[in-house]
Specification:
The protein has a single domain, classed as Glycerol-3-phosphate (1)-acyltransferase (3-Layer(aba) Sandwich). The chain is α/β, with parallel strands linked by helices. It is built from ten helices and ten strands. Helix 4 (100-106) links the parallel strand 3 and strand 4. The longest helix is centred in the N-terminal third of the chain and has 28 residues, at 2-29. Helix 1 (2-29) runs antiparallel to helix 2 and helix 1 (2-29) packs across helix 7. It has helices at 2-29, 34-50, 76-81, 100-106, 120-132, 195-202, 210-219, 235-238, 241-261, 270-284; strands at 52-57, 66-69, 87-91, 110-112, 137-139, 165-168, 173-176, 179-189, 192-193, 223-229.
């Protein structure tokens, strides 16, 4: 039964993508309005097709911003992409992948050469330009994916984009660029708690081959994901890019732990967390 399910889902995934790819390509070429919304609708369709139920907590920032999220799997793309119109920041190797590279390009992904630090400023400016133009971009600061049971350290290099302001033409002023941490937790499989045993079946990390992993995930049944939007901040609030990365990492880790354990640290508000990171940055600086 699982193999039949995987075959049907994989066929639906590929065929739907092949049908929409030329439509999106035309929209991007001629800068048509639907080109920004079509990926969001397609990701909603994928979540329905695969059987992904997304439960959200908190509110997304009202306006363009940089979202920083923990990274578990290729499934993070349709999960986060289904919640609001957005694009992603990905490693440059993704652009060369067959099929998935084309999909990434058609969603206006920003490709980053992580091994070439000399290109960081250039990509930072590209990200800033996109957010200034009204886009929401999603960055995975871990730089790789994990097994879904933990959050890896966040890299701060691209956080320097938050040092640049955004021109608000409506109010005739410059605003600080907003950064919002978002935690993603894989919770249930077929209605039952997924647990540490089954979560790695959906996580894609290490040297796993993509298509065999995709087939295995499709064969296992519907899943439930918790996505929590944490307090958005500016670099001015926390001190510097390293402090910003530390704040985002802390919030994503706290959100993941709270979702997986069902326990929340009620004694600490997110405003207090911002203050603690800012104080630590001042002491270090």
């Amino acid at each position: 039964m699982g193999q039949i399910r995987a075959g049907v889902l994989l066929a639906g995934f590929v065929l739907s993508a092949l049908l929409l790819m030329p439509v999106q390509a035309v929209g991007l070429k001629f800068n048509l309005p639907y080109a920004k919304k079509l990926p969001n609708r397609y990701h909603k369709f994928l979540c329905w097709l695969i059987g992904i139920k997304v439960v959200t907590r908190g509110k997304p920032h009202d306006g363009p911003c940089l979202i920083t999220a923990n990274h578990t799997s290729w499934l993070d793309i349709p999960i986060l992409g289904s919640l609001e119109p957005s694009s992603f920041v990905a490693k440059s190797e993704v652009a060369g992948w067959p099929f998935f590279g084309w999909l990434a390009k058609l969603q206006n992904t920003v490709f980053v050469e992580r091994e070439r630090r000399t290109r960081t400023a250039e990509k930072r400016n590209e990200i800033h330009s996109r957010i200034s133009g009204g886009d929401t971009l999603i960055l995975f600061p871990e730089g790789t994916s994990s097994d879904g049971n933990r959050v890896l350290p966040f890299k701060s290099a691209l956080m320097s984009v938050a040092q640049l302001s955004i021109v608000n033409s409506d109010a005739d002023r410059e605003d600080d660029l907003m950064v919002q941490p978002v935690s993603v937790a894989y919770m249930r499989l077929c209605g039952l708690p997924m647990g540490r045993r089954f979560r790695p079946y959906f996580a894609w990390y290490g040297d796993m081959e993509l298509f065999p992993h995709l087939w295995e995930a499709f064969s296992m049944g519907p899943i439930e994901i918790n996505v929590e939007y944490h307090k958005p901040v500016t670099i001015r609030e926390v001190g510097n890019r390293k402090a910003l990365a530390a704040y985002c990492e802390d919030r994503c880790r706290a959100g993941l732990v709270a979702a997986l354990t069902g326990r929340r640290a009620a004694e600490e508000t997110e405003e207090e967390a911002v203050g603690e990171v800012a104080m630590a940055a001042r002491k270090a600086g």
